[in-house]
């Protein structure tokens, strides 16, 4: 029976992994973290545990040696972690955000704040400078004839297109190349509470985009609309929950919703280029429906089913949540970085379970509703499927008025 005596909810520190054999002992981890001696994580040990360096941010100032395979990593000696101060970005940013992150319980936010600000600055630059300058140079007659509303939407879709291509590429790279995914695949505690720097990096870039989206939506509320602002705020909030850390594993999987976004943006651009009802838009529409159904309805529903099951297990279990990945990482870095205690050894708060599951369920329902409306719109526009100008009565070049069922943003 696991005992949590002396471990106060919200203030306990995850235990350091205990060595499996006596000859592996380096020193008593309780001397580094006295509160950790009451948390037993022996049941969370894994012979496939990666080297601690793998759990750091893949974009730090220093170079990291990352094992090529889980088998290679498992052969390395896992010593008792010691507090260190890894370089994860400008120190002043981590120091400045630390009080806020500790207050909100966003433990890993200081490790990725530089990626959030970098992404925000990048997207703001694309929106304010790159898109207007490039559009005036490449399609001057079209862009200069736009109204203020159309220009803002054009520039916002440019940013959305880049974001979707970039975040999908990085997310797929992490999913297929990060050795920690093998550890998390086999343990529900790792999937909910485990942390690794690569997934945190992707999460940081996504949070930077949604932060930009919040400011743009609020700054141009008359153009973007209230629904866009609400969507941006909610998306930023749900993304930031991952910095507790919570559901980093699933957060990376749900980012693949964005696989359909490039085709949605292409549909919008084709309307602006007077290609409404054309063969190009027909083929793009088929690709949009296929990727939307695959990434959001099939893949997304499957991931929702998995996370519902993991949350159910966490809600009913009495075990501590000090997982190997989370425990070793914070045992090695918490003191050096001044980070607050991660949520990894706390009970699952009701608000967290309800918020995450509720938001995920609402988005899943919306995805099915959007898909139904998109099917109806495509059938109306291409009744014969010939792509020779669309349905009778459909005029070219009318923008999104000809396909109102497709939402402006599904990020």
Automatic annotation (TrEMBL):
Compartment(s): Membrane
Biased composition (Basic and acidic residues): 399-411
Membrane topology: Multi-pass membrane protein
Domain TLC per the UniProt entry, residue ranges: 149-383
Principal cellular location given in the protein's record: membrane
Pfam families (UniProt xref): TRAM_LAG1_CLN8 (PF03798)
InterPro entries per the UniProt record, alphabetical: TLC-dom, TLCD
GO biological process terms on file: lipid homeostasis
Region (Disordered): 72-91, 386-411
Keyword annotations of the record: Membrane, Transmembrane, Transmembrane helix
Transmembrane domains' residue ranges: 158-176, 192-212, 224-244, 282-302, 350-372
Gene Ontology cellular component list: endoplasmic reticulum; membrane
Annotated protein name in UniProt: TLC domain-containing protein
């Amino acid at each position: 029976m696991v005992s949590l005596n002396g471990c106060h909810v919200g203030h306990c520190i995850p235990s350091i992994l205990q060595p499996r054999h006596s000859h592996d002992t380096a020193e008593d981890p309780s001397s580094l973290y006295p509160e950790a001696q009451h948390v037993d994580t022996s049941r969370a040990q894994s012979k496939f545990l990666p080297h601690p360096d793998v759990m750091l941010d893949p974009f730090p100032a220093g170079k990291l040696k990352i094992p090529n395979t889980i088998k290679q990593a498992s052969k390395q000696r896992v010593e008792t972690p010691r507090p260190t101060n890894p370089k994860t970005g400008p120190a002043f940013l981590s120091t400045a955000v630390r009080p806020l992150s500790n207050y909100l319980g966003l433990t890993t936010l200081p490790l990725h704040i530089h990626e959030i600000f970098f992404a925000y600055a990048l997207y703001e630059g694309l929106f304010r400078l790159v898109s207007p300058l490039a559009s005036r140079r490449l399609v001057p007659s079209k862009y200069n004839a736009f109204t203020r509303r159309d220009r803002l939407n054009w520039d916002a879709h440019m940013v959305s297109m880049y974001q979707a291509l970039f975040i999908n590429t990085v997310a797929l790279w992490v999913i297929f190349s990060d050795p920690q995914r093998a550890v998390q695949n086999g343990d529900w505690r790792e999937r909910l509470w485990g942390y690794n720097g690569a997934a945190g990096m992707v999460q940081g870039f996504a949070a930077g985009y949604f932060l930009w989206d919040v400011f743009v939506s609020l700054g141009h509320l008359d153009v973007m609309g209230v629904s866009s602002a609400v969507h941006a705020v909610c998306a930023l909030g749900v993304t930031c929950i991952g910095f507790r850390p919570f559901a980093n594993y699933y957060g990376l999987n749900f980012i693949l919703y964005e696989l359909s976004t490039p085709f949605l943006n292409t549909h919008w651009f084709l309307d602006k280029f007077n290609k409404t009802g054309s063969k190009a838009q027909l083929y793009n529409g088929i690709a949009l429906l296929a990727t939307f159904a695959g990434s959001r309805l099939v893949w997304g529903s499957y991931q929702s089913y998995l996370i519902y099951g993991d949350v159910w297990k966490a809600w009913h279990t009495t075990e501590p949540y000090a997982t190997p990945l989370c425990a070793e990482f914070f045992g090695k870095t918490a003191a050096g970085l001044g980070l607050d205690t991660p949520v990894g050894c706390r009970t699952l708060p009701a608000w967290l379970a309800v918020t995450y599951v509720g938001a995920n369920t609402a988005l899943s329902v919306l995805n099915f509703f959007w898909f139904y409306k998109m099917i109806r719109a495509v059938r109306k526009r291409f009744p014969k499927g010939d792509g020779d100008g669309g349905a009778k009565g459909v005029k070219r070049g009318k923008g999104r008025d000809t396909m109102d069922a497709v939402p402006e943003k599904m990020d």
